[in-house]
Amino acid sequence: MVPIYIVPFLNLIAANRGNIPLVNLLYVLFQWFAWPLLGIFVAENLTLKAQKKLLWVYLLCISITALTTSYGCTLFPSASRAMANGDFAENETEVVSMYRSMNIGNFQYIYTSVLIIPLVLCLSNYHRKKICYLITALLLFTIYKTEYTTALLLSVISTLFLISPISKNAQVAKKWLVPILIITLLSLPLIGGIMNFIASEIGSEQISQRFSELSMSLHGQQLEEDSDFGTRLFLWSKSIKTFFENFFTGVYFTTDVNDTHKYIGGHSFILDSMARFGILGFLAIVWMFKRLYRIFILPYGKRPEYIYILTVFLLNIIQCMINTISIEFVFVFLIPLLMSVMPEKKVVLLNRHFQ
Length: 355
Description:
This protein is an all-alpha fold. The protein contains 17 helices and no strands.
C-alpha cells in the first residue's frame, strides 16, 4: 500500500509544511485506506451475488448523481466548475452550498466518471448491456453539461476505442495501441481542423472556446497568455523548468512555503510532485504507477477485460499529468469488485499484496 499512496502523502505533508494536526492526518489516512480495506472485506466475506448487488448499488449512486448534476448544470451552467476551486470568496460560499445541496458533482466526480466509463463498458459484455450503455450515455452527457473539456475529450475518445471491433480482442487491441498513438500524433493538424469545426457547432460556450484554443495550438498558432489552454501550458512549463533546475533536491527543502507558487504551476499532480521533490518525486511517481499496474492490471493480462482496465490505467496517468488529482480508489476497490463478478473470474487477493 505504501507505494500507492506515497506521492499523495508527500504532497499532503508538503502542503502543510509538516504542521498538519494529527487528527486531520489520521482522518486523511482513514479516507485513503478505507477503500482497500473494504475491498479486502468484500472479497473475503461477501458472496458473488452480494458483490454483484454492491457493484450495481454503486453504479446506481453514481447515476443518480449524474442526473442531479446534469439538471443542476442545466439551471446553473458553470456550477460544477465553480466548485472546482476550494477557496471561495465570502459571497460565493452560500452559492456553492446551494450547488452541493442539489447534489451537483464536482471536479473529482467528473474525472472519476472518466475512469468509470471503461469499467461500465467492460461490464456490458456480461451483464445488462442496455443498462450499461444507458449509464455510459448518461455519464458522457453529464461530463458535457459540466463543461470540463479535457474530461469530455478523454471520455469520448476512450469510449469510441472501447466500442470499436479492435477492443474485442485484448491481444489485437494491445498491438493497435501504439500505432493508434502514432497515427494520432501525425494527424494533429487534421484533429485541429475537426476541433475547430466542433468549436463552431457545439452549443456550450466554455467547451467551444477550449476546442478553439486546442485547434489553434495544434496548428502551431500563438495562444493568448490569459487563455485557458495558454495558462495551462504556462503552469505546466513552470513545473517542468523547476524540476530540471532543482533536479536533485526539488524546491520543498530549499524554498519558503509562501514562495512555492513561484516555482510550481499547481496544475499537474505529476509535474508538481517532480518540481516539489526533484528526482525523489519522479522515482516515487514511477513506484506508485508501477505498483498500481502490477497489483491491479497485470494479473488480468490474459483476460478479455484487460484492455478495459488498461485503458483506465492510462487515463489515470493522463489525468495525473494534466490535472492535480490521482484517483486511487478506482484501482484499490472498484476494479477488484468488477473483476470478481466477471465469468471465470480471477480475483486478485488484495491482502496478499498489501502485506
